[in-house]
Specification:
This protein is mainly α. The chain is built from one helix and two strands, in the order αββ. Helices cover about 70% and strands about 5% of the residues. The chain binds zinc ion (ZN). Zinc ion binds next to loops.
């Protein structure tokens, strides 16, 4: 039954199966990439929020009246 005429059909069937398989693989990879991108997007605003909360600490830095060095308020800075 598997003559020369059925061989192209077999190759075509295999090609279609392979195409569907790789299509699913590609889709899964894309979905994973989209999920990771979404995770990264969620992380970045959080990091920005953290850096914003850190900024007031920088604003609270005061110049030392003795040496002029900017030191954080309440830090145990001692000159000489
Ligand atoms: Zn000082």
């Amino acid at each position: 039954m598997f003559g020369l005429l059925s061989l192209p059909k077999l190759i075509l069937t295999v090609a279609i199966v392979m195409g569907v398989w790789y299509g699913f693989k590609w889709l899964n990879q894309r979905q994973a990439q989209i999920k990771q991108a979404a995770k990264n997007k969620r992380r970045q605003p959080k990091q920005a929020a953290y850096s914003q909360t850190d900024e007031p600490d920088i604003e609270e830095m005061m110049p030392c009246p003795n040496c002029g060095a900017y030191v954080a308020k309440g830090s145990n800075h001692r000159c000489g």
